[in-house]
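Board notes (copied after class):
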Amino acid sequence: MTYKPGKDSMMMAEYLEDNPIEAESCLDMGTGSGILAKKMREKAETVHAVDKDPEAVKYARERLDGINVYRSDLFSEVERKFDLIAFNPPYLPGEDESDHSDWAGGKNGIELTERFLNNADGYLNKGGRILFLVSDRADSDQLIQENRVLDTTHDWFEKLYLLEKN
């Protein structure tokens, strides 16, 4: 199922649009609709977009001209490094992230994000940046404290944080 852009996606897309990203190569992890990859393509020469959902990959391939789109479970099929990696992960608590992959990020809502962060540095060029989102509905306090808060927004039931990994 392709994740449709919501307030979370729009916050990150607006950040990418309004701020210099100083990146020649970008990766949109978990691309879903491809909205972040499109924003990256406006500023970067090379953009890759990956998603583990075959429907999302098909959807993105049909709509993202000039962007390398392929299927990957996080970094499993990624073979290069990037100047910027952006990830709007499923970030709400759920019993099993595989059952609700469009919104559940694990039992505490951060397990998928932690798995991403544990591997992301290996795919980042020197001086590169990692941007990601978390929700206050998840067990995200430590992630918020340990990383740089770039933006916040309130949705009807949660506060969302756009973070840059320190």
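Comment from the instructor: The longest strand covers residues 124-135. The beta strands are 25-29, 46-51, 68-71, 82-87, 124-135, 148-154, 159-164.
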